[in-house]
Amino acid sequence: MLELKKINKSYKTGDFVQQALKDVSLSFRKNEFVSILGPSGSGKTTLLNIIGGLDRYDTGDLIINNKSTKKFTDKDWDSYRNNCIGFIFQSYNLIGHISILDNVEMSLTLSGVSAKEKKQRALEALEKVGLKDHAHKKPNQLSGGQMQRVAIARSLVNNPDIILADEPTGALDSKTSKQIMDLIKEIAKDKLVIMVTHNSELAHEYSTRIVEFKDGKLISDSNPITKEEKNEETINIKKTAMNFTTALKLSYNNIKTKKGRTALTAFASSIGIIGIALILSLSNGFKIEIDEFEQTTLSQAPIMITEQAMDLDEETIEELAGNNLTKYPDEEKIYVAKDITETMTHTNVITDDYMEYLDNINQDDIAGISYQYGTNFNIINKSSDGYQIVNANNMLLQSWTLLPSKENDSQNTLIESNYDVLAGSINNDEPGLILQVNSKNQIYASTLEQLGFTGEEEEVSFEDIMNKELKVVLNDDYYNQVGNYFIPNQNLEELYNNENNITIKVQAIIRGKEDKEILTSGTGLAYTNALTDLIISKNKDSKIVKAQQENDYNVLTNQPFDETTTKESILSYLGAESTPVAISIYPKDFTSKDNILSYLDDYNENKDENEKIQYTDMAAMLSTLSGNIMDAITIVLIAFSSISLVVSSIMIGIITYISVLERTKEIGILRALGARKKDIKRVFNAETMIIGIFAGLLGIIIAYILTIPTNIIIENLSGLANVAKLNIIHAIILVIISVLLTVIGGAIPANMASKKDPVIALRTE
Ligand code: ADP
Ligand code: MG
């Protein structure tokens, strides 16, 4: 069943060629105990390694089961070693970091036997060599003789047909040697045992056949196979494969023997993970903070409908910036740049139809709605400098339109939640003015002038402001008809003292609340709805309005209309029309804001471009901006931290390389037991994977702990509590990345390990 035909084997070291075997032809019976004798260096070990499939012959052939092995693949050799061969070495070659039982089980493990059967068979084998009670010890807790018996048990456990023993008693005293020889002889009863020894006494005492070698050549054979002897018995060969859990167990036990180093390595590779986890938890926290801000504060920012709307959706901005084009193009082409005013602005014509549409908005969604009119009030004040006309359109605080309305109580709540009333009270049913000061109680000098002060005052008391009286002169008193047009009365004193005038005062002084600064930062004057209503009701039937309605020229100048001064705009200016020029809608919250926006969008459906009414969503513009900045910062920081991930990846490569060097012997043993190259790779991949998981988990735990001081620092700096929050998904992804990077880092050394020559690996100490 086993036959060597003219086997030649030589080793090259540099230019020197050592012929280890020369034309060796030798056949073996299925059941005999062959001793191979010969001086050191005569090629005995080489012969054994070739028979065992651990080393390859150069020329000749090894016949197994009457079949040539010339065409054997690596896999075939692996299976052959695992199933048919049991090795016993002079230096025992047990794997030091796993138990006796695990050592014996190893070749069963490699051939995929179930755990239960494996244990049973291993214990049986250990019982045969008298070491059942020592199954859970580590190899270094046994004597030399005991270790060799473990090695014998290991060689037997897979029930191979051939046992190869290379000087099994070489390291043992004579008494122990005899015990081992007895054991081997017992085995040889139903197997082929080929034993190398230089103890010819033992050889002659125990074996059934003695073969002698010298200088790589067979020089004698005490019992050669005759031509009549037929050799038809066969041996069967099964495939082997180590599963990944075995690889993990093997590496886990190995790692346990070098805890300190593993912990340091894992800690070093966790630093990148810690960095990224912290950055992610911070940006995650800030995003949540921004979202909350958006949902509470920003969602209450008004949706504004003005005459000129800005159409600033993301697409338009991209287009304006020319982001769809490449920089420094090679084509000989010219592209048209988008004009900002044309692209961005849209003229809204607010019609009665639209006002009606707004009236039907779901009242549950809105906290308030306010209108600005283009109506000019003829306001005259009196200061120490004399009488003065105030342009009511300049007086209006453009961004401050949060006036309570008669119909909508919630608007009052909206004001209360956004502003502190410092003096007086807001009564929207009473015609009057409201003065908003900034966070430092400042207003502009021009506002003071509008109120009837000189504008040179350093400070003015609330009382003085509240006591100031302004007069609104009605159209019929203000304008005098001259032929077919009208001119204002120039006598301001007379106008100021007209008894038809409406007297107005500052009703209330208000200031934006501290935490609502973004929305309430303006200063200036605003007026109540009641004032607008009153003035429009008095002026809409005035002579000048009637005249303007009847004539197709500007009755204020006697000039024809043009693009900006239309009949409508003059009528609106004179207080004949009550269509507002600007509308601000205040949503109650985030969801109601969405409802309002979609309601407003619905209006534009199927409308011509010039009939569409477009709104400006300040909050959305603000939050997209802050969201984008956050993303950019996060990406930059992560890129920096990733460098440390690359560094740790390289470090893992080096550590694995060292581990490969340390575990070279183990590689040889595993290969001798039938492990495939792939299995060796698995062992080291398992090792890096364990380190990767460990590093990832360590990184996440440390990062999680670090969020506590980070949050304390941030709270002290910005007042925001619990910003850094580690997202569980991020944590899981980071552990996976850590594992991937360490496995990649260890891949090259693991590959090197798998390619190691098993013979050389076994020779290393
Ligand atoms: P033995 O086991 O009989 O002492 P070996 O089979 O180990 O002898 O070695 C036979 C010859 O081949 C020796 O001269 C040895 O130096 C040489 N040899 C064995 N293995 C190698 C190797 N891997 N590289 C180079 N020379 C080797
Ligand atoms: Mg030898």
Could you characterize the architecture of this molecule?
This protein has 765 residues and is of the alpha+beta class. It has four domains: 2-239, Rossmann fold; 255-293 and 625-763, no CATH class; 304-373 and 578-617, no CATH class; 375-576, no CATH class. The strands form seven sheets. Strands 6-7-8-3-9-10 form a six-stranded mixed beta sheet, sandwiched between helices. The chain has a four-stranded antiparallel beta sheet with strand order 2-1-4-5, covered by helices on one side. α3 crosses α4 (115-128), α3 (100-110) runs parallel beside α5 (144-156) and α8 (244-256) packs across α25 (677-718). The longest helix has 45 residues, at 618-662. It is rod-shaped and about 150 Å long. Residues 397-408 have low confidence and may be disordered. Bound molecules: adenosine-5'-diphosphate and magnesium ion. Magnesium ion binds at residues 44-45.
